[in-house]
Amino acid sequence: MFAPKNAKCHVCAKTVYINDLIVADEKSYHKSCFRCAECNNVLRLGNYASLNGRTYCKPHFKQLFKLKGNYNEGFGQEKLTEQWANNRREGGTTTTTTTGDEPNSP
Asked: How far apart are CA 96 and CA 106, in angstroms?
């Protein structure tokens, strides 16, 4: 994958030159700007995971998931049950996919 000629770093918004370029999740980064959102350690393409636009080292990604057992609560988002309740109060409907890890809709 090639970066655009005037690629800007997703973190610092400065120009990224090819010798310092990392492209992850279709975003350009300086090698030194590609860091874990939790511990701020520098990441490599082989040791990171991302969710909702944030990058994590694999140990912290696993730790945050295990903390609450799902991707929403562990990563600081609203509980799925609260989202469903809010949506029902507003009269909307949602389509969700269950993987066996989440409780069924109330």
From this structure: 13
